[in-house]
Design goal:
The protein is mostly beta strands. The chain has two domains: about 30 residues; about 300 residues, Methylamine Dehydrogenase, Chain H. The chain has two helices and 28 strands. The strands form seven sheets. The protein has a four-stranded antiparallel sheet with strand order 1-28-27-26, with no helix packed on it. It has a four-stranded antiparallel sheet with strand order 2-3-4-5, with no helix packed on it. The relative contact order is 0.13.
Amino acid sequence: MEDDQPCEEELKLIAEIKEMKARIRTARKEAADADYVTETENLPPLGRLKFKVRKELHGHLAKLTDLHWGKNSDTLVTAGQDGKLFVWDVYKCMKQNAVFLNTAWVMAVSFSPDNTRVASGGLDNILSIHNLEEPEGGTPIELSGHDGYIASIRFTDASHCVTSSGDKSCALWDLQAGKIVHRFLGHENDVNALALASHSQHFASASSDKTAKLWDLREQHCRATYWGHELDVNGVDYFPQCDYAFATSSDDGSCRMWDIRADQMLANLGDDFIQCGSTCVAVSRSGRLVMAGYDDYNCHVWDLLLEERIGIMLGHDNRISCIGVSPNGIAVATGAWDNNSFIWTAK
């Protein structure tokens, strides 16, 4: 038991880390020359927004774990723990393709930039690349490198993608070479999600260590760490019109907006009505709305500027597991543990 106790040098380092974190928090407060709530209090409210299910995508026989929109907003890929990936024609509400996986425990899926391939990963710790131009995805390319499950995948270009994992790391893959070319270390627990900036080389990660981190794809060290959530951070999404802010969602029931230029949190979205954790988050194309899935089977919609809950999406019969806004900004896709995916629009 004595071997498990930190030595004197480790205790000094822990104390130094705590002191540095406190100094960072103090510096961030000193740099806040304006109050977010005060600056936005005179904006006209959006009022209540009502969302309606326009399409219901049925076909999976087990929990949906992830989804991703195609580049033209007319296709959607969903991943279910029935061991299948379905590519949907959203307008016709029909399956375009079905990919049968080698494992049922899929957790992440992503379209390639040209929509000709999808990547998947899960509890097998393997990154699988499927060619949609071949029947049932053809023979997948399987790449190993993580020591834990793959929680999230995003392509950076046709030949590279980024993954986050339960091994506490993120990784940049060269798909042509079939290996990891950069590994991003710094989180102290599982990395549950990642989001790519659209116009830069940055990405953000969300972790069970209660933090979000900012990374540069060209470097292997963390650019910034954001503290504030009280429990696991499950979801993250960049604001689509800029690369200066991103939103996170957490088991503490809140969603938060982090501004990279201000180097701190600007908005905290939560109220007493919600008494459960948030599993995923998505930002509207305008950046005004933040939509998040929760353990109460609902998706709640927030007016970011006024920090008010202004809408709710009611329809799923189990925990919301994934959410995404279409690239054209018109529709929202949700997936849940009730095996279904819904396409919503505001009425």
